[in-house]
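pinned: reference chain
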Amino acid sequence: MSTTGIGTFTIRPLDPLKDAELLHSWVTHPKAAYWMMQDAKLPDVEREYMRIAAHEHHHAYLGLYEGRPAFLMEKYDPRYVELTGLYDPAPGDVGMHFLVAPTDRPIHGFTRAVITAVMDELFADPRTRRVVVEPDVSNKAVHALNEAVGFVPVREIDKPEKRALLSFCTRDQFLAARGVAV
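pinned: its structure tokens
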């Protein structure tokens, strides 16, 4: 659980079948273009999240805001998923993706509160030493958001589906970005 100035966030494991319809509406929304599932059908979303649920090194979670579904979070071990062979992982590296649900009633600061809750969740595990992200190089909004919570861009990398900006955030960088003395 993470409490921010705008409310309380909780995170629970994703149920690939029960949550698929909700996720389908999120990942096919125009605002989710960087998620690369715009043309996905419901069975495609079910299959993708069943695949993740069965994977030893990739996990999906549903984020709740004040008890209501509000975002999707994935964490993965970059030694085996997403970044295999694209950089030299360090002990304690954890990869992360997040997607905020589309809404008709935006709340100022919501997306930053979501990424903060995600980072709180990841760093709650004492084994996590550094969070790794690889957003599309053209996704300037997420780059700014990542930097606001402590991520430092390292370099561009070529993934099969995109050109990505590899960025890292240590626990100390995250705490410093939050104004917590380290």
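why pinned: The two ends are 22 Å apart (CA to CA). Helices lie at 20-27, 42-54, 110-123, 140-148, 171-177.
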